[in-house]
Amino acid sequence: MPTKTVFKTEIEYVSILDEHGQYDPKLGDGLVPDEDLIRLYEHMTACRHLDEVAFKLQRSGRMGTYPQNMGQEATSLGAAYALEKTDWMVPCYRENAGLFWRGMPMEMVLLHWMGDERGNAIPRELFCTPLAIPIGTQMLHAAGLAWAAKYRDEKRIACTFFGDGATSEGDFHEAMNFSANLDLPVVFLCQNNFWAISVPGRIQCSAPTLAQRGLAYGMDCIQCDGNDLFAVVKVVREAARRAREENRPTFIEAVTYRLGDHTTADDARRYRDQAEVDLWKARDPLIRLRGFMKEKGLWNDSKEAELQEKAEREVAEAVQRAEGIETPPSTDVFDHTFAELDPQLTLQRATRRTTSIGQSPDAAAPAPAVDGH
Amino acid sequence: MANLTLVQAINLALVQEMERDDRVVVLGEDVGPNGGVFRVTEGLHKRFGGHRVIDTPLAESGIIGTSVGLAMAGLRPIPEIQFEGFLGPAYDQICSHAARMRTRTRGAFTVPLTVRVPVGGGIHAPELHSDSPEAIYAHQPGLKVVMPASPYDAKGLLLSAIRDPDPVIFFEPKRIYRAFREEVPEDEYTIPIGKARMVCEGEELTMVSWGASVVQCMQAIEKSGRSIELIDLRTIYPFDMEMVAASVRKTGRAVVVHEAPKTCGFGAEIASRIMEECFLHLEAPVQRVAGFDTIMPYYKLELEYLPDAERIGLAVDEALAY
Ligand SMILES: Cc1ncc(C[n+]2csc(CCOP(=O)(O)OP(=O)(O)O)c2C)c(N)n1
Ligand SMILES: [Mg+2]
Question: Cβ(B131) to ligand 1 under 6 A?
C-alpha cells in the first residue's frame, strides 16, 4: 500500500502594524476606534512607567523581587481589550497592561510584589485571578473557570496567559487536552518572549513554532506579532468568538520579547547578547503605536509630554497608596486559613505561640503581644 | 582551606565530585550558563560543558522523572529544583518512583540521585519561595532528607549525598546561603548522613534544630545565658536519635525548633521519640517552637511566622521553669 498524507496544516502569522510602521489597512481598519487607541496607548505608557519606578523601588529596598513587563505590554493589553469585561483573565505575572485595562488597581499589583497578600484580594467583578507564581499551573484553572461558565450557560470565556517556558510543564498539556476534548471556551495566550529566565526557547520547544502545539490537541492555533496591538486584538477577538459561540479553545502564540531582566533578581547580561536586545528595542510596541498615531494625526509631542507627566503622577499616586497602607497585624497570618479557624489555630492566633507548654492561654507564661503588633 | 559561604561550599563540592566521578551530571532550570538563580552552579557549565551541566525544559516532573531514569542507568544525577515551592510537580516522581524503585525491584534497580532544593523563608521572596516541606519528604519511606546549617557541613554532606546509593533530598537553607562564612577545607571529606552535629554543649536543656533555624537557636542561647546544649540535626531522615537521646538524658529538658508548621512538623517526631526513649529522664514536657499551622505568609509578615530568638527564649524559660 502506498503511504498517504493523513494530516497537513500550516500555521498562520498575523501582523498588522509592523516594526517599520507598515500598516495593513485591510486587516487593521475598524479594529480599534481612534479614541480607544489613544486610551490603550496611555495605558501602555503608564505600565511602562510603573516598570521603571518598580525597578527603583526594588533597588532601594522598598519592594521585593519584581518582574518587569517592558516590551510585552501590547500582548496582554490587546487581549484585555478584545475580551468582554466579564470574561475571565487568568494571568501569569507579565500582564500588568491588560490587568490595568480591565480595572485592576495599580496599587494591588504593587502590594503583591511588596509581599502583601492584600494585593491579591481582587474584586470579584473584575473577573481576574491572582498572579500565578508557580509556572504553568493557572491554565488548568482557566479551563475550570471556562467549564463553569459553560455549565451555567453564561457565555463567559476564559483567557489565560503564560510564557514559553510554561508550555513545558505537564499542567499546560493537560489544560490544552481538557479544553479541546471537553469543548471548553478557553483562549490560551502564550507570550513567547524567547526566554524562560536564562533558558532559551529551543530548550522548551524544538518545533518551528510554539503555536503548532495546539495542533496536537486538535485545536485551532495561530501565531501573531505580540508587539503589534492590532494583531493581538484581531486574533484574540476571533479566538474569543470561537470560544463563546462554538465552545472551542484556541492556542495563540504571541511573539514578543522581554526587554528587561527576568526579574529584579536576575541579570540577563549573563546569558543573552545585547545585540539581540537592541534588535527587539527597535520592535518596541510603544514606539510602534506612537509612530502610527502620529502619522494618523492622533498624537504629537506636546500630547506625549503631557502623557508622560500624567503617567508619572498616576504611578506615584499608586506607589503612595501601596506604601501608605499599614502593615497588617500579625494575626493576619491566621485569618484567611479557613472560613472558620479550628481550635488549634485559634490558640496559636491568640498566643502567637507554637510551644507545647501552656496549651491553654491562661496557663501559658506571659504571652507575647496578644493580637495586633 | 578557604573562607566560604554555604553557596560556595556547595559549589566546591559539586566541582570536586564532578572532577572525580564522570557519572555525576547536574541538571535543572537555569543551572547552566546562568549558574543557577542562587549561583550555586556558577562556573560548572563552563568547566564541564553542556553535556554534564544541563539546562532542562521548565518541568519539575520531567527533571526528576528523567533523573530517575539516568540514575537507574547508573549515572549520578544531581537535579536542582529551583525553589522548594516548586517541588509540587516533582512530588509524584520523587515519591512514586525515586523512593520506591529499590523496594519495588528488590534492589535490581536503584536510584542514586541527589535532589538539590533551596528551602525556607527569611529572604523577602514571593509566594512559594519560602516554605519548609522537609517533613513531607521525611515521611516518605525510601528517601533520605538532609539539610546542612553551615558551609563546612554543606560540603561534606553533599559529597555523602551524591555517593549515597539511594535518593537524597538535599535541602539548602537559602536564608544562610550567604549569611556567614566558614573555613572549608579544599581536601575531600565527607560527613555521614544520619549523624547530627553538637553545636555547643550544655547541662540544663537540649535544643534540637536544623537549617537556618540553628542560627536563631544560637542567638536565643546566647541571650538566655543558660547552659544549653544545641544539636544541629543535619539529617532529617535518618536522624541521629542517639545524640538527641544522650543529650536529653543528661539535661532532662528539650526544645525543638523548626520553620515548618508545627502540626506534623518533624519536631513532632523528635518529641515523640524523646518521650519514648527518655521518658524517665524528662523534667519537663518537650517543647516545639515552629511555624504556625498556616500558609507561610508573604514576606511582609514572614518574620512574624518564623521562629526567632524571642519565641525560642520563651520556650526555654518555660521548659526551665517547669
Ligand atoms: C513550577 C515553577 N518552576 C519554576 C519556577 C521558577 N521560575 C519563575 S519564572 C521562570 C521562567 C518562566 O519562563 P516563561 O514561562 O517563559 O515566562 P516569562 O518569565 O518568560 O514571562 C521560572 C523557571 C516557578 N516559578 N514555578
Ligand atoms: Mg518566556
Answer: no
